[in-house]
Amino acid sequence: MNNTWRWPIEHVHHISGTAGPLTFVGGGGDFDSSGAIRNPGDLDAQIEGAVANISEGLVAESCSLADVVRLKAFHTTDLDDWEIIATDRAAFPR
Fold first, then answer.
1. Are 15 and 53 in contact (CB under 8 A)?
2. pLDDT-derived band of residue 1, with 50, 70 and 90 as boundaries?
3. Average pLDDT taken over every residue of the chain
4. What does pTM read for this prediction?
5. Does residue 2 lie in a domain region?
6. Could you tell me which residues are beta bridge partners of residue 24?
7. 84: closest CA among 51, 38, 55, 35?
8. Looking at the domain assignment, is residue 80 inside a domain?
9. pLDDT at 15
10. For residue 69, what are the domain limits?
11. How many domains in the chain?
């Protein structure tokens, strides 16, 4: 899992973890391995990158995007929320 992004901090930070039957992934934004945003100004590319990072975190816990039941997404754009929700949804398997 060498290509998973990491917070630019000294101590260990895991983006995913499992507790009983539940697996959690947090902070899976469109970040590179040094914590910088990979695609500033390109929301579609940021969503694609974030989903790729979420997928990496899930794989580390023996899960996949098909196992996701809830997604929280935060944005600071002027776009319609429903447009962003549709773009997020399109990134996941049916």
1. yes
2. very low
3. 84
4. 0.76
5. no
6. 17
7. 51
8. yes
9. 81
10. 16-90
11. 1
